[in-house]
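Can't paste images in this forum, so I'm doing it all in text. The chain is below; anyone willing to post the predicted structure tokens underneath?
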Amino acid sequence: MLRLLEDKIATPLGPLWILCDEQFHLRAVEWEEHSERMVQLLDIHYRAEGYQRVASTDPNGLSSKMKAYFDGDLSIIDTLSSATAGTPFQREVWQALRSIPCGHVMHYGELAEQLGRPGAARAVGAANGSNPVSIVVPCHRVIGRNGTLTGYAGGVQRKEWLLRHEGYLLL
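Text version of the structure:
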């Protein structure tokens, strides 16, 4: 059975769950108000009977590192490893998301083209929307073709805040 160590931290955007495996690879990062969505994804990826959540305080410093990101150490999320389940296509999209530099964005079509799948913008959007490791796998860095801030499961206001925090949007 997969043991997931979990902690919850306070952020400027509300409480944030951080779950990792015993090797300290992130498995889920989700806003508390979307806990049900997180559980649904965990159940899909690992079967409800295939994992156990165990309370942990700052497992391997992951909570401290996420706090550091919110305090302005933006590059720290590039040092955090994740291990996610999901389809091969989803994992391919999630890996590509990690290549978008802090302070930059792409639109869904550009990401699809980067993956060698022009015309698959909607599929990329769907994979983006099922990302279990928000912020670290920076799905907030993908925007609509016309520059609109669309499609962030944590809410458009959070997406806007994260993009401002990372220097893409000016105050």
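The domain at 2-79 is CATH 3.30.160 (Double Stranded RNA Binding Domain). The chain is about 35% helix and 15% strand.
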